[in-house]
Amino acid sequence: EYGINLPSLSLEVLSIDIANVDAKIAIEVDGPPHFICHIDDTPQDSGFANISRGKLEYQFRWDGQRQRVNGPTALKHRLLRTLGWKVISVPFWEWYALEGDSVAE
């Protein structure tokens, strides 16, 4: 009707941190916002209390023992796998543990 013709293409629009498109391998470097902290049955030494701006806060240690991928990140990984991608997730605590060792990184 308006003289615009667009080809029918299937689009795959998902952001990937590092990708080998030909092999369909996605490497996701997932920072703290990609995780939630599971607090049921948490050991006593799992974190520390801190007073920040007059408020008592509890900071959990980020070691991967209690962290779970959040809903949006899990959905993205599931969608990528459904589209035929192999997804490799590198959680931030593994990256931080390298402490700047460029060979290990």
What does this entry show, briefly?
It is built from two helices and seven strands; from the N terminus they run E-E-E-E-E-E-H-E-H. It has 105 residues and is of the alpha+beta class.
What are the secondary-structure elements, in order, as H or E?
Answer: EEEEEEHEH
How far apart lie the N and C ends? 55 Å
Strand order of the largest sheet: 1-2-7
Count of strand segments: 7
Count of helical regions: 2
Q: Sheet with the most strands? A: 3 strands, mixed
Summarize the amount of helix as a percent range: 10-25%
Content of β-strand? 25-35%
> Uncertain segments of ≥5 residues (pLDDT<50)?
none
Mean pLDDT: 82
Topology of this structure?
Layout: E1 18-20, E2 25-30, E3 35-37, E4 47-52, E5 55-60, E6 67-69, H1 71-82, E7 86-91, H2 92-97
Parallel strand pairs: 2-7
Antiparallel strand pairs: 1-2, 3-6, 4-5
List keywords for this structure.
three-stranded mixed sheet, 105 residues, elongated, alpha+beta, two-stranded antiparallel ribbon
